[in-house]
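User: Please predict the structure of the protein below. I'd like the answer in structure-token form so I can feed it into my own downstream comparison script.

Assistant: Understood. Taking the following sequence of 551 residues as input:
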Amino acid sequence: MKPNWISVLLAVAAFLLATTRINHGLIDSPLPPGAALTLDESFYIGQGVFLFESLLDWGPALFTPTGVEAVFGHPDYFPDHPPLGKLVLGAAHQSFSGVISGAEESVLNVAAARLGSCFAFGLTVLVLAEFTRRQFGLTTAVLAVVALMIMPRVVGHSRIASLETVTTLAWLAAFIPLWTWWTKADAPTNRQAIISGILWGLLLLTKVQGILMPPLVIGWALWRYKEKAIRPLAVWGIVGAVVFFVGWPWLWLDPVANTMSYFVKTAQRPTLYVWYFGQRFADKSVPWHFPFVMTLATLPVVVTVLFGARLVQRKFTATESLMSLSAAWPLIVFAIPGTPVYDGARLFLVIMPAIAVLSARGLVPVTNDGAATGETEKLPQPRWVRHAGVVAFMVFMLFSFSKTLQPFCLNSYSELVGGERGAQRLGLEAGYWADGLNGEFWAQVPEDSTIYVAPVSHQFQLGDIQHLVPIVAQRNIKLLPFEYDPQAQRGLTLLIHRLADLRPALRNVPDGATVVAEVKYGDVVLARLIDTSQATWLSVPDWPKRPAMIK
């Protein structure tokens, strides 16, 4: 079999792995249950459908003044993020809504939109496999792809309709020409700089993480090429900025004001809270080490060990050096005091493909898979030692792979911290934005019920669940926000165990209450429905105002 076909097969396997758990609560669906509707999915899907339908309706005329005003000046358009990532989700929704059954009565087919993330994950694996094969050899390419596919948080995000997986693909695509051309002895040509700039522009059109690239690229190029870096850097920056501006017509309506508005709103977003080592922090007050700790706490142990082995071996190629910087730089940026961080490893998932490659390279002394890079130092390992090393690696990988088959792998933690149970003991976050409330959970809820929900993270959350989770509508379940007055709201109470938002008094079942339904992952509660009709439950104290808890 030709090596490029192996890359294609790996990409198909990644796509199928992602699609196994996209069922958020469909009716009579053959798809196994997956993560529930997470908080921002409805918004991204709705915006994506609006953009995709507008593109179909207007065609090339969308990029005329009339089309720009009609679409991007429309009240239904919200410029919180650039359009490319949302467009992928909208295209998947409109293309596959008729194929995935069980959501015919819903406003949107969430599972269909999630296929956009699944496709992005498959394409990420294809691109990563081909790049790694050409740079380091086929064995390393296969091991790198396997390393990426056993990362539970990476796979978990590929199963929801958010922007993270598309952004990871765009980040990888933007860095591949840098890892390939900007690591040679000679400075990149104009053609190479133009291609690099186009891909950076596409990353900017996906999500704000694209603005992290210029300091790294400029520093690397000046260090490596000195004054010869000025020309390719200028070409790269100008082309990327042009692609970003041309690809987002909303900016055309008022270029200066809208550009400033986008970046200011990105920095001045509503405060989110983080549960970290048993304390509640506002997102801009999280300790500096959060990105590094969460990365180690969520990576599979085998990946972490091999990544560490590669760092110990040193003797990096120029490509590996830049790859290492591209993995470390986002963590450094998010560690800067005052930079908002939240949602576990979500904001820096873009570094995971690079970590996967470097982890696979940790086996170079065993595999001797270094000919593609011109490495001449080869250890005289017997063939059986090399084969045993690869087999042992694959066994550990398969052991880790089991977590990615679970519906709630968005909440997975590494055995380095004792898994999910150990992470809870350390005081790390339990649940990811209500992803435990899937079809299996709602099937346990009595029909025609009225349920009080805590916490409610935004004003549209309960309405989205009622309108976009088909089984909730089918069972005629009504959701109301819990007002933190147990005397006035006795009855069925749903407690979502996102610990940064769930008040401490609500984390345990009160005396006299009964558990009606419960979702656990790794013996950690993600959500719990209790009946408080007979509970001894007089008050729910607010969060303590101690400086150590809220900074």
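That's the full token string. The chain has 23 helices and seven strands.
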